[in-house]
Sequence to fold (185 residues):
Amino acid sequence: MNEKLCRCENEKNRRDVIVGKKVARVYEKGFTLMETMVAIVVLSIGLFATASLQITAVDANSSANRYTDAITIAQGRIEELMSLAYNQFFTDSELIGDEQMAAGHEPFTDKNGNGAWDIDEPYTDSNGNGIWDAAHTDPNPPSGYTISWSVLDNRPVNNAKHIRVYVTLNNNKKTEMLACVKSRE
Fold:
């Protein structure tokens, strides 16, 4: 078997392969099927990760938008309540007429003794709507929200009314709360 391989140094990307008794010249240009498949798999993983990240970003943006809306609604309600004269709006006990229910329409456990419901305190959900209902509730809130507020007299000091506004997002029952104090003029 006297086979001879001839390589020309000036021809790049060429290799000689012996096939039987003949020398076949194979030029290595392009990619093999395996290299192409590996590249497609790596690219697919990257695209799926990017798509997942995009979905998470859109969800976070939507959640932030709802949170901003809830805070804006609460600020608006606080501005309305603060614009009233000191004696013009009712405290919870005047509205309900029952000292046991004075801090809100639905009873709650006042763990920190401040007389007002805090978001992390347990409550009795009397009407089964999944949120704590304060003594004052907006009958026509913006779509997707529940607005309620609580007014406590002589809190945190005498001649002051402690106002808390609760805005609940109806889709996930998450409640945002803003508070302020109105003093006697």
About this structure: The chain has one domain: 34-183.
